[in-house]
Amino acid sequence: MNAWAVLLIAGLFEIGWAIGLEYADGFTELVPTVATIVAIFASMLLLARAVETLPIGTAYAVWTGIGAVGTATLGVLLFDEPATLARAGFVALIVLGVVGLNLTGH
Domain count of the chain? Predict the structure, then answer.
């Protein structure tokens, strides 16, 4: 599989474990806790695979960017976090930063 596709999947698992932390409720809920731990492991394993090919700085920035943007978006949709213009602007800055690193990192 293409390293970028692996990195995308790793980022999706990062979103999964970050959201899982909310559902795990301080690791007191068994099923969400197990799912969160599995997602953490999968995310790290896939990130490790991706950086066998991709530069670490670029890959890590993309991975955390996917996680940050996805988690912030789901926080609004699932947990009634504020959906303000300022928050949307700062999320856009994360995306811009990741794209910029990607464009200059090769």
Answer: 1
Structure confidence by residue, pLDDT tens digits, 4-43? 999 999 999 999 999 999 999 999 999 999 999 999 999 9
Neighbouring C-alpha atoms within 13 Å toward the C-beta of 56 = 2
Domain that holds residue 30: 3-104
**Tokens 């806790």 label which residue?**
33
Shortest CA distance to 78 belongs to which of 86, 89, 70, 68? 70
Please give the helix or strand (H or E) that residue 100 lies within, else none: helix 85-104
* Interval 54-99: pLDDT, tens: 999 889 999 999 999 999 999 999 999 999 999 999 999 999 988 8
